[in-house]
Amino acid sequence: MSLEFSVTRPCRLGNVPQWDMETDVVVVGFGAAGACAAIEAAQAGAVVTLFEVASGSGGTSALSGGEIYLGGGGGTPAQQQAGFVDDTEDLYRYLLMAGGPDADEPKVRTYADGSRAHYDWLVEQGLTYKNTYLPERMLEPETDDCLIWSGSEEAWPFSGNAKPCPRGHTPQWAGWGGGRMLMDVLAARVVKLGVDVRYDSRVLALIADKANNVHGVVVRINGQTRYARARSGVVLCAGGFVMNRDMVRRHAPGLLRANEPIGSPGDDGSGILMGISVGGAAIHMDQGFVSLPFYAPESLIKGVFVNERGQRFINEDCYHGRIGHHIMQQLGDRIYLLVDSATYQQPAEFTRIGIAAAGDTWEEVEHDLGMPAGTLSATVSNYNRHAADGADPLFHKAAKWLKPLDEPPFVALDCRVDYAFYPHFTLGGLDTLPTGQVLSEKRVPIHGLYAAGRTSCGLPRWGGGYSSGMSLADATFFGRQAGRHAAASACRS
Amino acid sequence: MSLEFSVTRPCRLGNVPQWDMETDVVVVGFGAAGACAAIEAAQAGAVVTLFEVASGSGGTSALSGGEIYLGGGGGTPAQQQAGFVDDTEDLYRYLLMAGGPDADEPKVRTYADGSRAHYDWLVEQGLTYKNTYLPERMLEPETDDCLIWSGSEEAWPFSGNAKPCPRGHTPQWAGWGGGRMLMDVLAARVVKLGVDVRYDSRVLALIADKANNVHGVVVRINGQTRYARARSGVVLCAGGFVMNRDMVRRHAPGLLRANEPIGSPGDDGSGILMGISVGGAAIHMDQGFVSLPFYAPESLIKGVFVNERGQRFINEDCYHGRIGHHIMQQLGDRIYLLVDSATYQQPAEFTRIGIAAAGDTWEEVEHDLGMPAGTLSATVSNYNRHAADGADPLFHKAAKWLKPLDEPPFVALDCRVDYAFYPHFTLGGLDTLPTGQVLSEKRVPIHGLYAAGRTSCGLPRWGGGYSSGMSLADATFFGRQAGRHAAASACRS
């Protein structure tokens, strides 16, 4: 009998011919969330099997900078050494605001309370942090330093809501790409704890009974279909759906304007679809991270973004992902960053930000861009007048970034949506409790099913509030909760 | 044995104790979509049972103006009498653009080709249209006239894409509220065709086999739980989810800024949730119609909308729902409509649009609104300069609405998002084929399940493209397709 399996339809328990494998906890996906889930479950005494579709560990986490958004509890060693006292309530207020109009308060509370200890846990796993602080605004340290400003903490409106503190923690690793090192450390722990790791193993479907309680997975290993029983729980850590362009079109078509999906091939939505197949609710599926990583050089933050009508639309000192979020909401694809000779520095080559126009007056630049007289030039004139007083009454950009753009020549940098580098990934996913339990539309937990990382809708769920390190913070922390909870369920059964 | 049912979980076929009722086609919901589905199914010879949770017909359709977006094929009688030739391809291009970044091309094609004949069908059901044309811009006729401009056809960017034509058809009914009459006519047809209509009947869950093929519904009638078999299909026409504020929060939190949900209590998402429960995909769940119905009086269209930074953001001559869509994307809740003494007329009382500031110069108004000098006043100054030449280089407002706002006193009308009247409803729902068949995430039809109206994601699926009458057009037309297809399935079985 040939059975076809689909991530959109569970295999019913009655159709399982035999259990080819039995374990307590099945973890699907070997990115950061899956690794942390496996570590906690194994440490709690559960037998853990981890299926990864690729031939090695890492997932999309290994493609990242390895930066994790951490703080609270008075501060991590890096924060303290740099002179910051990071109060848990400030972290809580920042994350709540960053969660947008439907922030997940219980998760924010749990993470704010537990973030400081999570730092210690990461160190216990073998990660090292140099405990140094780089005050300049950047995407990631080019060195092996640790702490940076990685969000909109110092920018309006966040700055008025929570005392700003830098919280981006990058492990000690020279240059970009610390995510690979992060994953190697976590993967080594997973192996050391005796987790049964199966690579080249594609999970095809969940196995569920009629009431949609989850009992295991159908998995394809070496061309063979295997039925794996999970006595206590399946933890879906299979990434988001940015690589499934059909799903993006149907759920998050606004992201189609951005041109660079960030992810690994595994970010095909299969984890989310499996959760839906047994009644899980996928929420905020329209939301994504979209960025224009225009700094460093940080002097460009002193520039002014305008849309194709010469209008400002954002305080330029907020996080580049918040700026990307607002760029996507502008009518028209032409976006410019205006700078003068004192603030101009060449943007990083990979950003594909070139020069659209230059002139000795802003009127000349305005004219060269084909904008009506009195649009861009009036915007700059207004900006300059107030910047000279250290004020930005329209967008409340912080004083340290305010400088009149009055030193010719003047330049409009070309940040066209259809040409410049706009990386993006998805933030929508399965609704979960802080324990990782997947919830139905009525918010009832689905027995035996957990999710973490971008398969779930976690702390980051609103493009306007994303900060670097937030997705890894969510994946590692709530991956741990899911693994621990699934293991506890194992001990009870 | 007490069984608990949930719209989020199908009742499995094996758990059905007996069939209390048997029919060919079950229709859930007696709004426009359900009525049209029932009519077509019955006319095709199927035995039809319609369950409605309320005590009478109508649903949300009966709360509307009864206006239907119709045209193509050279024009309806009303269009032709008014001198318009409405080419099918213009209707097609308009609807495709109005569908936004993931327009449903097959549905747009089907509707454009079939809209003209759909008009005849509506007349055959007993609706009467006066075939008169009102050229003024309005929400609905206050008289029993028929044809109005009900979308953004004449406005940029739609006007450059398809030859404009008015397509809002209101049945002959004196004053607002033609939706009640529309539904009475359709309901009379339903009854005349022998459809078994059951009021006060709440469908609790779908009945499905292990492969999620749908076989019927569990329904609560007079306090009794009944198992109703649908030999060939269940058609979900149970409305949208705007009244389920938890669902709105998790899927469309952007709509929470609007303050007036438009719907009946039945718009609780139950139809969508039942579809999801058997593997149906819900798409574009973030999208909604949000309006600021600021005209009539149409002279207000000659005004200028600005956000709280004094910036324009839209051509004011587009449909009020498109303006509402863009208002929701502005930072900040303060929105003003600027008019001068020549263009000012009092907005309708129900809009709660009052006067925020007035002055003899725009600088005075700007100051009174607390805006920095040179913001609002520069916006108006630029606008006026070009309007005097009949041009709007920034937003391409059509010449007929362009008039310099230069006759004092000047007025800023207060359209605050947190106070003025912002009606809204949801546009996301189940993905369907033009036949009404509900699709999985992989776009595979779910056997025995159909959806229409706002339970489905139809022609209207993007807030920026909504036009009055589009939802009823979609509900009536694709309700018919669903009923016909389900009945054909009955004949085959």
TrEMBL record, chains A, B:
Cofactor(s) needed for function: FAD
Annotated ranges, domain FAD-dependent oxidoreductase 2 FAD-binding: 24-458
GO molecular function, one term: oxidoreductase activity
Entries under SUPFAM superfamilies matching the protein: FAD/NAD(P)-binding domain, Succinate dehydrogenase/fumarate reductase flavoprotein, catalytic domain
Matches recorded under InterPro entries: FAD-dep_OxRdtase_2_FAD-bd, FAD-oxidoreductase_2, FAD/NAD-bd_sf, Succ_DH/fumarate_Rdtase_cat_sf
EC number: 1.3.5.4
Keyword field: FAD, Flavoprotein, Oxidoreductase
Pfam family, one: FAD_binding_2
Keyword Flavoprotein part of the UniProt annotation: yes
UniProt keyword Flavoprotein present: yes
Protein name, as recorded: Fumarate reductase flavoprotein subunit
